[in-house]
Design brief:
Two copies of one chain form a homodimer. With 221 residues, chain A is α/β, with parallel strands linked by helices. Chain A is built from ten helices and six strands; from the N terminus they run E-H-E-H-E-H-E-H-E-H-E-H-H-H-H-H. The first copy, chain A, has two domains: 136 residues, 3-Layer(aba) Sandwich (Rossmann fold), CATH 3.40.50; 60 residues, Arc Repressor Mutant, subunit A (Orthogonal Bundle). Chains A and B meet through helix 4, helix 6 and helix 10 of A and helix 4, helix 6 and helix 10 of B. The structure holds a DNA duplex (30 and 30 nucleotides).
Amino acid sequence: MKDKIYVHVADDHKILIEGIIAVINTDKEIEISGYSLTGKEVVDWFDNKNNKADVLILDITMPVLDGFEVLKHFNKKGIFLNVIILSSYDDIKIVQEMLKLGCKGYITKNNAGEHIVDAVKAVANGEQYFSNDIKNILLKSITSKNIAVGDTPNSFLIDTLTEREIEVLKLITKEFSSTEIADVLNIAISTVETYRKKLLKKLNVKNSVGLAMYAVKNNIV
Amino acid sequence: MKDKIYVHVADDHKILIEGIIAVINTDKEIEISGYSLTGKEVVDWFDNKNNKADVLILDITMPVLDGFEVLKHFNKKGIFLNVIILSSYDDIKIVQEMLKLGCKGYITKNNAGEHIVDAVKAVANGEQYFSNDIKNILLKSITSKNIAVGDTPNSFLIDTLTEREIEVLKLITKEFSSTEIADVLNIAISTVETYRKKLLKKLNVKNSVGLAMYAVKNNIV
DNA sequence: ATTTAGATACCCATTTATGGGTATACGTGT
DNA sequence: ACACGTATACCCATAAATGGGTATCTAAAT
């Protein structure tokens, strides 16, 4: 009923890649179209237009570029991949950061074998997939606030803020006026006002309150 | 090893309350200390200092005051209860709203029987509890953004705001200017500005951004 | 009956923010 | 060599917000 699912695997341990290939080869629907041992290789592989993959299985700890940097790179380029994080980290902060960066699945290495095929099929199908331990820590993290809300899909694809813009934005949320921000950052008030204008435009909000609300919604503060 | 867990049940269907009592009575650790058929009754029951419960099982659809309003009332009063929502709604928006209002558990009526005892014990113990279907929709809702983050627990309203002040505050967080707020509420701009002054003073913040941040931190929005 | 809290509205003046430009300087990558 | 993004800074004008008052009306509480 549908084409094969092509998968690219990235992990700095060759043996783990071989394991994943072995597992995935047991399923006729899925095929490995490439693999990488460093983040740099991943980026380069996808830069080549001849290479294509429906799903990227991505380790976090890798030489040259780590998993975070790889996703940031793709986000910046506006490249939208179905990414499954395969990591031994089960720290909530890391999982959240990866979700913010747009990953669609997250499985831990402990029980990768039993999950990998299902995970690949799920994310290739536009769904999300988490291994049970990740599910648990995600649920635990749900408190009385800041519940996940289905936003504009892939809203990370919009205008990326520069470091300085984020710096200004953070100070705005701390109730600083332009004068005070200029003081703290040692720049002219006019410059701060330039940043305010850029922020308003990039984030498409009406005023400083909108900036603050954006910052909150997007975990910038 | 520990005292009994006292539970108050609120649902407008008497038969459902009876069912819950029957289920809960099978467990020696838990005891029903009261029940209510409307939201108003719940509020009144807890207003009486002689009444106490460790856990409140709360329906959403109820006459006089619904579940949302009951939780809002307790939040406003600074009353902190371990609340389990028992509802037939499994809409993500509703679950999220209830979590924002501070509920500690959420189970659907489909499979209440098999979950109710575990849920009560969990929330009485300070943990969270969700039935499997709720777990699933919560996980589904986790997108690339707005992941749950553990905040300051129970930071309720200090200086009580009036209804009108809260109304204005909410509009401020929606990026409305004073002119627009005056328009929406059909009052003079000068009146809106009076509210802004009062809000700034009561909440002890410097500007509108401070108001917005306060509103977010305190679940007003 | 009198106080109190809340909603409403205006006066004044000053400070900030917004919206439209333009412009220079620096570094990266093609 | 040149384009591009980023950080910086200024011009202009208008809109909005802030900070200090005072004041009236109503409903609820004492």
